[in-house]
Amino acid sequence: MLFVDQRQKGSTLIIVVFVSLLFAISPTEGYDPLDPNGNITIKWDLIVGGSAPTVLVTITNLQQYRHIEQPGWRISWDWKNHEAIWDIRGAEATEQGNCSAFLSSSAPPPHCCLRHPVIVDLLPGSPYNLQVANCCRGGFISSMNQDSSKFASSFQMSIGSSDTEPYEFSVPENFTLGVPGYTCGNATSVEPTKFTEKNRRHKKQALATWHITCVYSQIQSSPAPKCCVSLSAFYNETVVPCQRCSCGCQGLSGARCVNKGEAPQLLQQHQDPTVEVPPVVQCTRHMCPIKVHWHVKVNYREYWRVKVTVTNFNVIKNYSEWNLVVLHPNLKSIQQVFSFNYKPLRQYGYLNDTAMFYGLPFYNDVLLQSGETGNVQSEILLKKDQGNFTFSEGWAFPRRILFNGDECVMPSPDDYPRLPNRAASADISLLPVFLSVLLLAFV
Ligand SMILES: *[C@@H]1O[C@H](CO)[C@@H](O)[C@H](O)[C@H]1NC(C)=O
Ligand SMILES: *[C@@H]1O[C@H](CO)[C@@H](O)[C@H](O)[C@H]1NC(C)=O
Ligand SMILES: *[C@@H]1O[C@H](CO)[C@@H](O)[C@H](O)[C@H]1NC(C)=O
Ligand SMILES: *[C@@H]1O[C@H](CO)[C@@H](O)[C@H](O)[C@H]1NC(C)=O
Ligand SMILES: *[C@@H]1O[C@H](CO)[C@@H](O)[C@H](O)[C@H]1NC(C)=O
Ligand SMILES: *[C@@H]1O[C@H](CO)[C@@H](O)[C@H](O)[C@H]1NC(C)=O
Ligand SMILES: *[C@@H]1O[C@H](CO)[C@@H](O)[C@H](O)[C@H]1NC(C)=O
Ligand SMILES: *[C@@H]1O[C@H](CO)[C@@H](O)[C@H](O)[C@H]1NC(C)=O
């Protein structure tokens, strides 16, 4: 298979094939080479001890680009000693459960008596006396790179037990984050947290602190991809579409889609707003909720320009704070990015070939549902890597694209737009001159 394109000096193509093979395999192992240490850490700080303890729970997203979007986290665990949550601030349990073991005439019943409570974030604008710092964003948590003011979420609980012996706090087990794709480990005891207070030099300290680490695996999140890539270039009129059946096949059982203009009526039933609704996509040959189009737009003498368009085919979802991660060897020479924010990902330090793109707040940080203006676009100006830059063999196309942290399906390298036969790599050097002249005519 690697020799298919020998005629065409196929070394770059072979690298492309090899790289795509390499990465096609890795996500199944739940290890992300672009964010190898990425995880979500749930921290339990025991801040009041004794028989009526108080704990502060903080969920911190230590991932470079993957975030938790609506409907947000739904954290849960198993209590070990018949505990109940008497009071909670910054979040709430989805159900109270059977509190008859705690009933007394003197006090109101606990907030939640379930052995396996499910806790969700409060919504924005919740009453002030129910809030704590870093709460009340409906379970949304940004990534470290995208919005470092929103990458943690906290709530505080007062706990008691119905056991008759004097109660001493013990950290629960069997944690889940309630977000598809994440698996959480056991709580491990760590150095107690030291809290700094604003305008104080005195640091308070937790009585005890535990960490629970949760890691993501795309294959556990959803076996089907959620995104595909299409390609085009100024030197070839062919638009290489997303691969057929990238995310599903029309007509196969389980594949729901709606035709353009058709109202998705069956979808408007009342759903639990804290539960993720599966995507309902417009009927296309790829059946993906998201398509990313990479167009090699202009060739200048020392620069080249790419246009990137992200289109939403999900008719029931707005992607707020969406992000793209793109791998291309020339990304280390980005000159300018229009209409998107941009950050290099420095996971390898020495390579700099991976960048994260995301919307500008209040401008295009929400990718509206299909049928609204469901797309966002940007142009990227890159400086040609001396020695390596070429339009041949598909070099100008991205090696990988991730949307919201999930791998997009690339077209087969055999289908990439080709340079016209006459313009072999020797002749293409005339093209920049020609195009620069053209460009100057426009400026
Ligand atoms: C969690 O992620 C952070 C940031 O990448 C890293 O420093 C830490 O070692 C990770 N923790 C675990 C247990 O992997
Ligand atoms: C945690 O889960 C395991 C396996 O489901 C179960 O056996 C165990 O009892 C659970 N722990 C608690 C405290 O319920
Ligand atoms: C509630 O719990 C009490 C004791 O904890 C038990 O006697 C009672 O049957 C439970 N009620 C229901 C409806 O399960
Ligand atoms: C978590 O704890 C349970 C029970 O204490 C144990 O059986 C299990 O092996 C632990 N899991 C890990 C990943 O350490
Ligand atoms: C998406 O946003 C548009 C415009 O703000 C709004 O009309 C629509 O109801 C939203 N859709 C969903 C599913 O929230
Ligand atoms: C990657 O970026 C770092 C920091 O900007 C820089 O020091 C390093 O030289 C870059 N590496 C390459 C190969 O460009
Ligand atoms: C060209 O690419 C090779 C392999 O990716 C790399 O080792 C080399 O540093 C690149 N050269 C330049 C000038 O960027
Ligand atoms: C454009 O690219 C396609 C796909 O690789 C190829 O079949 C076609 O011959 C190319 N067109 C020209 C004019 O070279």
Strand residue percentage: 25-35%
How would you sum up the major sheet? Answer: 7 strands, antiparallel
**Average pLDDT across residues?**
84
Count of distinct structural domains? 2
Query: Rg to the nearest angstrom?
Result: 26 Å
- The computed structural class is mainly beta
- Report the top-level CATH class of the largest domain: Mainly Beta
Bound molecules: 2-acetamido-2-deoxy-beta-D-glucopyranose
Overall, the morphology is elongated
Determine the CATH topology of the largest domain. Immunoglobulin-like
Low-confidence stretches: 1-29, 423-443
Number of DSSP strand runs = 28
User: Count of helical segments?
Assistant: 3
Kindly report how far apart the N and C termini lie. 46 Å
CATH architecture of the largest domain: Sandwich
> In percent, how helical is the residue content?
under 10%
Secondary-structure topology with pairs:
Layout: H1 11-25, E1 39-48, E2 54-62, E3 74-78, E4 83-89, E5 91-93, E6 118-121, E7 152-161, E8 173-176, E9 182-184, E10 188-190, E11 194-196, E12 203-205, E13 208-216, H2 218-221, E14 227-233, E15 236-240, E16 257-258, E17 281-282, E18 290-299, E19 303-312, E20 319-320, E21 323-327, E22 334-338, E23 340-344, E24 354-359, E25 366-367, E26 375-383, E27 400-403, E28 406-407, H3 430-442
Parallel strand pairs: 14-18, 16-17
Antiparallel strand pairs: 1-2, 1-13, 2-7, 3-6, 3-8, 4-7, 5-6, 9-13, 10-13, 11-12, 14-15, 18-19, 19-26, 20-25, 21-24, 21-27, 22-26, 23-24, 27-28
